[in-house]
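Quick bug: DsrE family protein output formatted oddly.
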Amino acid sequence: MPANKYVLIIQANQQDVGKAVHGLLYGQELHEAGFEVDILFDGMGTQWPQEFGRADHPFHALYKQVMRLGIIKGGCQACSGFFGVENEMQEAGVALAGSEKSGGHIPFAQYVADGFLPIVL
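Here's what came back:
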């Protein structure tokens, strides 16, 4: 049985703009095809909302379009703290997501238990 729910986890560092952008593109495509989609920023990927949020960034329009879809569900609370981008995440409109059980990291196991197929970029 094919999956109908996906969680895309963007962990791409700043040199991997292609991976980060494709996370947004894949999420948008899946959403528009009728699938349930959550996009989360994790690890070094927590730096992307601030980058994509800059009006002069080449993928700013795509980021804003995906934000309007409501499928960007958050960024890892623990990782955004580690990389010092908690405020920037929230200013970019991305909620901090974290499970107390996992030390403030995204609830990966819960997503899998809820039937989401993870895609990590």
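Actually, after a second look the formatting is fine. The mean pLDDT is 94. Closing.
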